[in-house]
Amino acid sequence: MTGARAREKAIECGRTRKLCDYVGVAAVAWAKNDFLIVTEYLSKRTSRALIFAADNSRDPVVIDQPLLTNLVPVNLRPQLRENDHVFMEASQVEGETLTLRVWGYGKHDANGFRWRCEYILLEGAISCEETPTVERK
Q1: CB burial class (10 A; 0-12, 13-18, 19+) of residue 4?
Q2: DSSP E strand boundaries for 32-80
Q3: Helices H, strands E: what count in the chain?
Q4: pLDDT at site 36
Q5: How many domains in the chain?
Q6: FRET label pair with 4: which of 20, 40, 75, 119, CA 20 to 30 Å apart?
């Protein structure tokens, strides 16, 4: 999808509801437990993840660089603050856990960094672990 508005359509009743306005490109997927997960690529330097409950039973969750910076342990924050390219991609929701891929590069990490993070939707808590990076040339 590119441009204007994302909409969800309930096939059984034919109704639609506005989910969000977005810019750039968005990748959208249904999770098997009725969550819609969206990765919105805001620019060439950043992205964010959005999670919507299909039944509208809870507020949407938006995970972006500023929120992630506040949630991760202090020792991981420089990778988010000091790199000028930081991306996150929602990959799946299992139960109440959203799995994210987070990666970036810049002044702090010339060869880049990669994390696998798990965000607990009901608690707003996150845990991240480093994953191997491919060296940039």
Answers
A1: exposed
A2: 35-41, 47-53, 61-63
A3: 2, 10
A4: 86
A5: 1
A6: 119
* SS3 call for 77: helix
Residue 17 lies in a domain: no
Which pair of structure tokens corresponds to residue 65? 């660089």
Answer whether residue 63 is part of any domain.
Answer: yes
Does residue 6 lie in a domain region? no
**By the 8 A CB rule, do 65 and 46 touch?**
yes
Asked if residue 77 belongs to a domain, the reply is yes
pTM: 0.79
pLDDT (tens, 9 = 90+) of the chain, 137 residues, equals 443 344 444 434 455 655 666 666 777 777 777 888 889 998 899 999 999 888 888 888 999 999 999 999 999 999 999 999 999 999 999 988 999 999 999 999 999 999 999 999 989 999 999 998 665 55
> Do 41 and 25 form a contact (C-beta atoms < 8 A)?
yes
